[in-house]
Amino acid sequence: MILDRGQGALVWDVEGREYIDGTCGLWQCPVGHGRPELAAAASAQIGRLEFYSSFGDYSNEPSIRLADRLLNLAPAGLERVFFTNGGSEGNETAIKLARLAHRNNGEPERNIVLARVGGYHGMGSGSLAATGIDRLREGFGPLMPGIEFLGKPHGVVHGPGATDVLIAELEERIARIGPERIAAFIGEPVLGVGGMVPPPADYWPRVQEILRRHGILLILDEIVTAFGRTGHWFAAEHFGVEPDMIVVAKGLSSGYIPMGAVLIGHRVLDLADGASFLHGFTYNGHPVGAAVSLANLDIIEREGLLDRAKLLGDRLLTALKPLEELDHVLEVRGVGLMLGVEFASGDAAAVQSGARAEGVIVRASGTNIVLSPPLVISEEQLDTLARVLIRQVRAAG
Ligand code: PLP
């Protein structure tokens, strides 16, 4: 499928066929396609200063303004920003920084990172090592050592008492490894690639409390969830936690330019205590990425897209929920405009291609169909998406 252009929640291929975009490509486009303000922001910045390295003591104004803006929007306790070109780089950065901080605090043996089965953190050496999806890891070993996996925060563990089971596992694992050997816990607030899986509501606050007690840093991978997807600037707000680092990308620039960031909290800075962080990639702190991101955040704010995500997310979840009555559907779930349909049996890939033939783009991820349309999608487009998906899921049984 060769794409040619986009507008709002619609894209067209080179044959001129129109599609409702139910996925934002890979989740990256809260403000929708074809926004002239973002083209103008990029053009103006390229005309002024296209790029200059952020190494040493160099910086640029758009990056400084964006860092300030992000820290103003973020949960309490975050104080610095390290810019990247995308998500994997951000998670590599966060993992390295967690290890460096503990080492500088006189605890070099604190280097293990806890991650979860079903989690996705990227394709780099550390970020793939922390990814708990076997099919993505196969063939690339040995991956970076020092990752310990906890179970998937959902699935077999349902209903009342679910969090107790997950918390007991976490406590048991920390005791077995020894808290003095654990640097950080990395997790997505809601599993994305793993099937749009929200944990029980009290999961994150309880995890945070245990990690704090043991001096373990919490890295929240908000590469999918930040900038409106869950109805908040950050999903950390939705779940009521204040992580030590938040990693973002995708929605930061709505994907118009590759851009990401790691928001770094005071605990990390205290541990690191001014240690020099010999780390960075050529295009970090890109002024064009920063200028576009600032304009993108303006649109999200001006158009009230956080509230819109909640409203439309509820509408889509309500429309799709009856699919659970089908024998071949295990669950329909979601938070904001981030939804998943999980199959007990049946072919998610066939649903993806059937929907595409009807002019709707959805994505098969393992045994799930995952949905994350632009937050600007109209009610009418959303209802069409739901209608087509329901028909295709029924047919896949
Ligand atoms: N973390 C999460 C939760 C993601 O969904 C992704 C990409 O989909 C990544 C990390 C990796 O980001 P990137 O592909 O920009 O390196």
Automatic annotation (TrEMBL):
This is Aspartate aminotransferase family protein. One of its GO terms (molecular function) is transaminase activity. The keyword Signal does not apply. CDD domains: OAT_like. Keywords: Aminotransferase, Pyridoxal phosphate, Transferase. Belongs to the class-III pyridoxal-phosphate-dependent aminotransferase family.
